[in-house]
Amino acid sequence: MMGDFDGNYMGPGMMGFGTPGRGMMGGGMMGGYGCGPGNGSVMGGLDLTRDQRSRINAIVDQTRKAHWALMGKMLDQQASLRDLYNAPTRDQNAIDKGYKSLRDLRQQMYTTSVDARKRIEAVLTPGQRDKLREDWRESGPMVW
Fold first, then answer.
1. N or C: the chain end with fewer CB closer than 10 Å?
2. Cα–chain-centroid distance for residue 85?
3. Looking at per-residue confidence, does 142 or 84 come out higher?
């Protein structure tokens, strides 16, 4: 579930912005749960303006929608691969194409995450960006 930067959230974030391998799609946009202050979020300490929060929330919402669509395609592709593996005779070319398709979908999810990070950083002031990067360095590498 998602939240906003005012601290209103409803459970673990699922946007794929966290460290790869955490949960189904990641550990929330800032790593950890939710997107608001206090739940592992580094955005809470940036003193965002109302306009910044609104713009960042819009980016988060757009990215969430894109990721859910991609996740649906990934699950469909995984089901196709399952069926290919369960076929009486395995078609290696079809399996190879299926894995390539899955890899391409994962790349699209990564690309949308990088784009969202750039767009969010563009909303911040230079001081806020510096503080955010400092917080990221302290909390470890993230691919959100």
1. N
2. 29
3. 84
Length of the chain equals 144
7 backbone φψ class: left, alpha, beta (φ>0; ψ -120 to 50): left
CA dist 123 → 12, 60, 65, 78 (Å): 24, 12, 20, 36
For 68-115, the pLDDT digits (tens) are: 999 999 999 999 999 999 999 999 999 999 999 999 999 999 999 999
Tokens 């206090």 correspond to: 38
Domains of the chain, CATH where assigned: 1-144 (1.20.120.1490)
Indicate the pTM of the whole model: 0.66
